[in-house]
């Protein structure tokens, strides 16, 4: 291999990383109220929130920027930014009131040590802070949930109360031998007060509180809380069933109660992040009588209920199987007044031609309804793209809003009064912010998009999608005829056009997918002279439910063969050179496949998985092809089959130089599994290096860890390529 494709000085790679990592990412957007000027023109403000890596501070910073959108009712006349970006420090959640006259902000302040950080709930009006409540000092509950699994911040329709989710206040605990000075002058009433139930419980300071896993380590027992904005009183709602944990709550029509999703937590909690299959249901709790009513099937899983503007209907996602951790979902509609539930969009077993392949989003946008409360807009993976869709809830028709475009991917941030705010990006174009009005029914494909914030394309990156059909001997007998895809990025002007090294990256999950959107690492590698192959093997989302169901029981075989077949097919195009198989995977199944590949196919090139196996017992058992039950242990035959599917089985064949990157706080894949793999290679004198990040979690996404792991990967390739 000629030196100069990748093997430039590390300082050059660091400079390239510093430049590309400055590209910001959109995280949220909301629309302000309609304003009519003195000349009759109409405009709305668009408030956006972004995140960006800051390598000097080694943290992800958050900032906001506002835009003005002038329109004539059904089309944008003019749009542009209103001022510069402003960093928002400490904001955890924020939500505009229904009229747009007020804004609620959950903010953290104080130190970073245990017990030093405080949470404040602020109410802003026009140009002033109207109210500020020190939630930590009030001691009504524990920390407020700001995550997107349970967390919410919802205004009542009357704009007098705020609803949110927080950790239940835990009783104080102390040692059996804790002593306190006795005040001999205390009255009988004071002595009785000291004996009240809220005093510390002896011997409970080491009681175990089970949490909800990865990225949810401090979250165990959520409760619904209501703040009276005028009086400052906080009440913890009663009536929630003891066997479920509430979240994703909002005010019911008329503010008489609260609608929420309740997740089963008995007999124990399992990790909930990226697991839409957790058993859950939709509930309504009446604020007056405290009665709780079940609104959906309680044997399935549900997510993201959204109330229509006319307050008559609720749409939500429903997952019909509790087996795959993520899958194709149904879109269900609950009529508030008739109490009737209907399935608007059903699960799609298999995509037919260019038809809709199903809904695969884990959450609907907070704003997803059309102004007339008839249509719902959302984004979803469709094979290797992500498109926007409008669903007519009356007849169930699904129409793409972005089909036939340039092939990139879309994400809906919000829609309000038919004005949509969306993000568009491609593998060579960082996120661009766009607005457009939802056309009338039947004309959805004629959206006129206007850019609010244009991103500069990254030059010299060419990309495309390869459709792949497995050979007959690799067909899945139960789910025959499935195809899969891979996204190929190539440098436009490599130093040696006859030999372009290729990096191979299957995704993790296993039930997730790559889409044709902006990704930092593939863009970095392409700019350094590599081609990058992103493989959506059978079992990926976006290809129909049959594809997802084809993988459990076939992990370690079907997925590995798909990746190898994709590599072989792309190499037959004649312009690429398989000198570097580099699976850079930050979720479990990618590392699982990488270790299978270097064991089953023994490429003499460096590999860089960031994890090597699974964590949740349920996920291990299910993907191995067995039913999961919380009340029994797998027998010897199950253990034997799981060992047969494990990459550690192929340790004796591994010759590939391996760089392992593990997070010591990983709750999804125990890092000690990677340590075992590392030691097994060390005993066989296979070149192996281990990076163990003590405070990092599963994704290795902290700015310091992410940047360090990438640069170490570059050095690893520099050391071993061509050796």
Automatic annotation (TrEMBL):
Domain Peptidase S9 prolyl oligopeptidase catalytic: 523-722
Pfam families in alphabetical order: APEH_N (PF19283), Peptidase_S9 (PF00326)
Domain Acylamino-acid-releasing enzyme N-terminal: 46-458
GO biological process: proteolysis
GO molecular function ontology, one term from the record: omega peptidase activity
Parts of the chain that traverse the membrane: none
EC number: 3.4.19.1
Keywords: Acetylation, Cytoplasm, Hydrolase, Phosphoprotein
Chief site of localization: cytoplasm
Location in the cell: Cytoplasm
Tagged with keyword Hydrolase: yes
Chemical reaction(s) catalysed: Cleavage of an N-acetyl or N-formyl amino acid from the N-terminus of a polypeptide
One cellular-component annotation, GO: cytoplasm
Enzyme class of the recorded protein, top EC level: hydrolase
Presence of the UniProt keyword Protein transport in the record: no
InterPro entries recorded: 6-blade_b-propeller_TolB-like (IPR011042), AARE_N (IPR045550), AB_hydrolase_fold (IPR029058), Peptidase_S9_cat (IPR001375)
Role summary: This enzyme catalyzes the hydrolysis of the N-terminal peptide bond of an N-acetylated peptide to generate an N-acetylated amino acid and a peptide with a free N-terminus. It preferentially cleaves off Ac-Ala, Ac-Met and Ac-Ser. Also, involved in the degradation of oxidized and glycated proteins.
Subunit text: Homotetramer.
Family statement: Belongs to the peptidase S9C family.
Official protein name in the record: Acylamino-acid-releasing enzyme
């Amino acid at each position: 291999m000629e030196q100069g494709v990748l093997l430039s000085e590390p300082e050059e790679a660091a400079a390239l990383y510093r430049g590309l990592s400055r590209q910001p990412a959109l995280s949220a957007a909301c629309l302000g109220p309609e304003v009519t000027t003195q000349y009759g023109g109409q405009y709305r403000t668009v408030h956006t929130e972004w995140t960006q890596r800051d390598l000097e501070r080694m943290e992800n910073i958050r900032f906001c920027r506002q835009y003005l959108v002038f329109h004539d009712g059904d089309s944008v006349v003019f749009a542009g930014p209103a001022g510069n970006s402003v960093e928002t420090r400490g904001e955890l959640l924020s939500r505009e009131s229904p009229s747009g006259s007020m804004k609620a902000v959950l903010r953290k302040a104080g130190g970073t040590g245990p017990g030093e950080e405080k949470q404040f709930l602020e109410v802003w009006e026009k140009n002033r802070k109207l109210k500020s409540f020190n939630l930590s000092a009030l001691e009504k509950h524990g920390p407020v949930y700001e995550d997107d699994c349970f967390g919410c911040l919802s205004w009542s329709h009357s704009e007098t109360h705020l609803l949110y989710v927080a950790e239940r206040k835990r009783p104080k605990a102390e040692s059996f031998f804790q002593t306190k000075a006795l005040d001999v002058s205390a009255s009988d009433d004071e002595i009785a007060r000291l004996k009240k139930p809220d005093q510390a419980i002896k011997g409970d300071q080491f009681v175990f509180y089970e949490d909800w896993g990865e990225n949810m380590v401090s979250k165990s027992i959520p409760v619904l809380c209501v703040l009276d904005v005028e009086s400052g009183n906080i009440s913890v709602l009663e009536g929630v069933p003891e066997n479920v944990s509430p979240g994703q709550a909002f005010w019911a029509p008329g503010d008489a109660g609260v609608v929420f999703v309740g997740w089963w937590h008995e007999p124990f909690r399992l990790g909930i992040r990226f697991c839409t299959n957790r058993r859950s249901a939709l509930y309504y709790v009446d604020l007056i009588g405290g009665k709780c009513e079940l609104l959906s099937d309680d044997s399935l899983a549900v997510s993201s209920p959204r109330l229509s503007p006319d307050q008559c209907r609720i749409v939500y996602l429903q997952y019909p199987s509790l087996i795959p951790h993520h899958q194709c979902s149904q879109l269900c509609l609950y009529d508030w007044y008739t109490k009737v539930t209907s399935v608007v969009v059903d699960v799609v077993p298999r995509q037919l031609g260019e038809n809709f392949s199903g809904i695969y989003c884990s959450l609907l946008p907070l704003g997803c309804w059309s102004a007339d409360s008839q249509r719902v807009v959302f984004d979803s993976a469709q094979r290797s793209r992500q498109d926007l869709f409008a669903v007519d809830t009356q007849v169930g028709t699904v129409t793409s809003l972005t089909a036939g475009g340039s092939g990139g991917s879309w994400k809906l941030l919000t829609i309000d009064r038919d004005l949509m705010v969306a993000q568009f990006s491609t593998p060579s174009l960082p996120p661009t912010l766009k607005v457009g009005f939802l056309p009338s029914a039947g004309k959805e494909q004629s959206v006129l998009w206007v850019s609010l914030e244009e991103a500069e394309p990254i030059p010299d990156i060419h990309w495309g999608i390869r459709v792949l059909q497995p050979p007959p001997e690799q067909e899945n007998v139960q789910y025959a005829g499935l195809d899969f895809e891979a996204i190929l990025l190539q440098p436009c002007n490599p130093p040696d056009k006859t030999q372009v090294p290729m990096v191979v990256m299957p995704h993790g999950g296993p039930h997730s997918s790559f889409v044709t959107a902006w990704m930092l690492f593939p863009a970095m590698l392409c700019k350094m002279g590599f081609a990058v192959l992103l493989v959506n093997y059978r079992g990926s989302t976006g290809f129909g439910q049959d594809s997802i169901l084809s993988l459990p029981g076939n992990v370690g075989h079907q997925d590995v063969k798909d990746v190898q077949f994709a590599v072989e097919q792309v190499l037959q195009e004649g312009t690429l050179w398989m000198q570097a198989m580099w699976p850079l995977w930050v979720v479990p199944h990618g590392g699982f496949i990488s270790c299978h590949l270097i064991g089953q196919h023994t490429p003499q090139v460096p590999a860089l998985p960031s994890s090597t196996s699974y964590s949740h017992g349920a996920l291990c058992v299910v993907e191995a092809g067995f039913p999961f039950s919380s009340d029994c242990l797998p027998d010897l035959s199950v253990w034997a089959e799981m060992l047969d599917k494990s990459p550690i089985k192929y340790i004796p064949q591994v010759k590939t130089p391996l760089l392992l990157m593990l997070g010591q706080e990983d709750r999804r894949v125990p890092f000690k599994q990677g340590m075992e793999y590392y030691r097994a290679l060390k005993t066989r004198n296979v070149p192996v290096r281990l990076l163990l990040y003590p405070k990092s979690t599963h994704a290795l996404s902290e700015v310091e860890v992410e940047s360090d792991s990438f640069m170490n990967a570059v050095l690893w390739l520099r050391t071993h390529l061509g050796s």
